[in-house]
Write a structure and sequence with these properties.
The protein has about 150 residues and is mostly helical.
Length: about 150
């Protein structure tokens, strides 16, 4: 299998598990009575899973000391992840998985176009063009259809 196909498959599978994760996290939110507690539980379980993975693969942990050398904004990624998980825990029971993730993808693509266009956060530059904007507009149209029906 070509490497690009492996990456495409990985992207599709990782996207496909998000509604499952969101639904399970929403259940946890209802069980503990707070979406932030549910997000915390999700991150703790995920952290334990990653730690076990690192141990099982005998990963060289000496590189983790390099984390101290990055600028402070890089550290906010964890907070952004926590915000995302908590928001999805709130949204899925209120507006459904399909609409939630349609809107999430719309937001991701919209900002991604700007990040790519200006090469922000160290990304390679990919100029905004009408085809890319049309792609986002098609997603917006899909979200409208999901919301309408």
């Amino acid at each position: 299998m070509k490497p690009i196909l492996v990456f495409i498959l990985l992207a599709v599978v990782s996207g496909a598990v998000l509604p499952i994760q969101a639904s399970l996290n929403a259940k946890m939110g209802r069980a503990v009575g707070d979406p932030v507690y549910a997000a915390l539980i999700s991150f703790v379980v995920g952290s334990v899973g990653l730690f076990l993975y690192v141990l099982a693969n005998k990963t060289d942990l000496s590189q983790i000391s390099q984390a101290g050398s990055v600028d402070w904004p890089v550290w906010t990624a964890g907070l952004l992840g926590a915000f995302y998980v908590a928001a999805v825990i709130v949204l899925v029971p209120k507006i459904g998985a399909a609409l939630t993730f349609g809107l999430v993808v719309t937001g991701q693509l919209g900002l991604s176009l700007l990040l790519d266009h200006y090469g922000l956060l160290g990304l390679p530059v990919h100029a905004i063009n009408w085809q890319r904007v049309a792609g986002v507009l098609l997603i917006v149209g899909g979200v409208w259809l999901i919301r309408s029906y």
